[in-house]
């Protein structure tokens, strides 16, 4: 412990401070006594309402029932809106999947048509190549030194008939492909029309259900209002013949 200096307290200064503090406390008490509020004087008046306790209790019960009904109605509307939103989301996802499937089907048909066209082109090329070979193997028509002219005419007829048969076969295949594409287009149009009718019918059913719900709510509201009017009239009659106390 370091060195320290002990200072002797000044008793005179302490007494002066104590006297000043005491004087201030006495002044505060004196001020409180002088500014103490006086007695309160109120004009006598009659308290209470114009309705009896039973009527007040009945009104409270009615308000409570109405609040319960409103909460129930809000909850039902929330559930209905949530269900409608979920159904709309499901319909939207189905529509997206349907569009993807249709695009995939169109892409497959286009690839199939391209493949058939390529196959027909290749077949046509090979057929022409074969016919050219046959034509090159036949003797020329302007050569007069022909051993047997019947053979030339017979080969030419067979080649011409073969070419004609190939052309007819190719035309028949093209016609079949056109008819098939037309049938597919008609089927796709019919499916789209059915889906549009289904969506329209679902929308009409939803609107009808909403209208029915609104009608039920309106009827219920009218019944409740009529019940409350009858109850209020009955209460007024009871107050007329059996007035309640006020206090």
From TrEMBL:
Record keywords: Coiled coil
Name the record gives this protein: ESIP1 protein
Organism placement in taxonomy: Eukaryota, Metazoa, Chordata, Craniata, Vertebrata
Keyword ATP-binding found: no
Coiled coil regions in record: 71-121, 163-198
PANTHER family the record matches: EPITHELIAL-STROMAL INTERACTION PROTEIN 1
Gene: Epsti1
């Amino acid at each position: 412990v370091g060195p320290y200096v002990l200072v002797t307290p000044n008793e005179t200064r302490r007494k002066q401070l104590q006297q000043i503090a005491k004087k201030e406390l006495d002044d505060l008490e004196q001020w409180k006594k002088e500014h103490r509020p006086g007695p309160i004087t109120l004009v006598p008046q009659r308290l209470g309402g114009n309705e009896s306790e039973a009527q007040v209790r009945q009104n409270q019960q009615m308000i409570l029932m109405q609040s319960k009904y409103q909460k129930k109605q809000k909850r039902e509307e929330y559930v209905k809106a949530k269900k409608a939103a979920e159904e709309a989301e499901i319909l939207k996802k189905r529509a997206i999947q349907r569009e993807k499937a249709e695009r995939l089907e169109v892409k497959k048909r286009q690839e199939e048509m391209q493949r058939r066209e390529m196959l027909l082109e290749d077949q046509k090329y090979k057929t022409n190549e074969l016919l050219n070979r046959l034509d090159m193997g036949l003797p020329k028509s302007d050569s007069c030194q022909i051993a047997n002219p019947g053979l030339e005419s017979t080969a030419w007829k067979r080649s011409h008939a073969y070419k004609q048969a190939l052309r007819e076969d190719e035309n028949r295949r093209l016609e079949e492909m056109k008819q098939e594409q037309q049938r597919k287009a008609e089927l796709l149009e019919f499916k789209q029309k059915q889906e549009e009718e289904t969506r329209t019918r679902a929308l009409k059913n939803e609107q009808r259900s909403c209208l029915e719900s609104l009608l039920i709510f309106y009827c219920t509201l009218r019944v409740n209002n009529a019940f409350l009017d009858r109850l209020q009239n009955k209460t007024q009659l009871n107050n007329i013949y059996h007035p309640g106390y006020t206090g």
